[in-house]
Amino acid sequence: MYSELALYIDGKWLNGEGRKGEDVINPATGKVLAHLPHAGKADLDAALAAAEKGFAVWKATSAYDRSKIMRKAADLLRERFDHVSKVQTQEQGKIYVESRAEVLTSADIIDWYAEEGRRTYGRVIPGRQRGVRQMVVQEPVGVVAAFTPWNFPTLTPVRKIAGALAAGCSIIIKASEETPGGCIELVKCFADAGLPAGVLNLVFGVPAEVSEHLIPKKAIKKISFTGSVPVGKHLAGLAAKGMKKATMELGGHSPVVVFDDADPEKTADTIAAFKYRNAGQVCISPTRFYVHEKNYSKFVARFTEYAKGLKLGDGLEKGITLGPLANPRRLDAMESFVNDAKDRGGKVVTGGSRHGNQGFFYQPTVITDVPDNSKIMTEEPFGPVAPIVAFKTFDEVVERANSLQFGLAAYAFTTSEKNATAISDALQSGMVGVNSIAISTPETPFGGVKESGYGSEGGIEGLQAYMNIKFISQA
Fold first, then answer.
1. How far apart are CA 283 and CA 148, in angstroms?
2. DSSP letter, residue 88
3. Residue 322 has what DSSP assignment?
4. Model confidence over 35-72: pLDDT tens digits?
């Protein structure tokens, strides 16, 4: 059921063959799924050479023909969704229905970029003198190096791969070593769709060694990274030394504002389901809940009821609604958050401890009465722990919601058009959902502000991120 793990360089799959590597663990059982080979420096240099060669071929391929190959890859991914979904669930832990949704959305992303890539139009600007023609054209930036985390094994890589390919770029992607199978299955779809050798290359290895080897190379013209703020800053610094384009989608700590005119129970049902998706291991997961004091008790009661109703277990089993955390580091982090909250006077309403004696399971947790300077309110939790606090006034909650260095996503619930407009304007965030959690679709920009990064994936902005703008004045 699981994938055969390998590197993909210059159109060839490369297995162990004496390479160093690491085991991939099923977080639901703690057992080894397979052994993953790492790329050595010679492999990385081969990927660079292949990507340069692939770029020359792919750039010269018409947008129309690039689109046909990409759409075929999307069709293959849909045909294989069941297998890919099961691979993801085994290596990452999310329940099957969530994996299925991720894989099918990934196919939609490829389709969207395939079509948008045919519309990378320029424009003609009237000259100031007779006989002068002025044009603006868009050209692919070149070879891309992309780095993705473990929480969305297919979705995060496909945003970078599809954006780069639609623009006419080639790409070397280093996917997560902890969840390699999803990206391997994705790359197989592109290879089987007829993508020329070298256009897409997949490597794994020690993250710092791979990034520090690839990014400074002359061949690399752009980097794209999804991950933590500290690592993002380091990679952005490496890119800056070569004045290379960069897209940084970094951490978040998304505030949720529930106004006094919102239905507290309906809102709790909506946002709790979103909170516990992928056991809270989502960069845009709602993570700080500010509820008007009028609605506070009802909201907490309903949210807690939802949390208690979740059934933990292996995501491939029927009836399971919450899978394990992806790795033991997240278990340790959850314990740290909860212990700190309790030390500061926080009340654990439900959950608050590990679950079971195998795998990396943590109970869905609700904590109240935590101060704003507690760890859970200031650091990205990335897990199934929800702190809920009360607020009184609009200005107060805006100040508290905007108090952190993060600015990726934010949410608000209200029946007042005035409140909806005011809070969407006031929240310092790259994405804001007002009475909606639908802030991530193929056709809309996805990205943050402040220390949550810069640049966007998705939408026309995600395609333009892989393009250079050239102005031509011809007399």
1. 12
2. H
3. B
4. 999 999 999 999 999 999 999 999 999 999 999 999 99
Statement to judge: residues 237 and 359 lie in one domain? no
417 within some domain: yes
Residue 358 included in any domain: yes
Helix residue spans in 178-295 (DSSP H): 181-192, 207-214, 229-241, 264-275
239 and 268 housed in the same domain: no
| 256-295 residue pLDDT tens | 999 999 999 999 999 999 999 999 999 999 999 999 999 9
Residues 350/304, Cβ–Cβ less than 8 Å: yes
Q: Is residue 440 part of a domain?
A: no
Which residues, 6 or more positions from 148, have their beta carbon under 8 angstroms from its beta carbon? 156, 157, 160, 173, 174, 175, 176, 183, 226, 227
Q: What is the pLDDT of residue 337?
A: 98
307 and 220 in a single domain? The answer is no
Structural domain span for residue 293:
254-434
Is the Cβ–Cβ distance between 408 and 250 less than 8 Å?
A: yes
pLDDT given for residue 16 in this prediction: 83
SS3 assignment, position 437: coil
Evaluate whether residue 406 is within a structural domain.
yes
Report d(CA 237, CA 217) in Å as an integer. Answer: 14
Global pTM reads 0.97
Same domain, 242 and 325: no
Q: CA 334, 335, 341, 347 torsion: positive or negative?
A: positive
Q: Report whether 413 contacts 303 (CB < 8 A).
A: no
Residues designated as active site: 249, 283
| CA–CA distances in Å: residue 32 to residues 24, 27, 178 | 6, 9, 11
Question: H or E segment at 119?
Answer: none
pLDDT tier at 309, thresholds 50, 70, 90: very high
Residue-level pLDDT at 474: 96
Q: How many domains does the chain have?
A: 2
Rounded Cα distance between 332 and 265, Å, is 32
Q: 187-200: buried (b, 16+ CB within 10 Å) or exposed (e) per residue?
A: bbbbbebebbbbbb
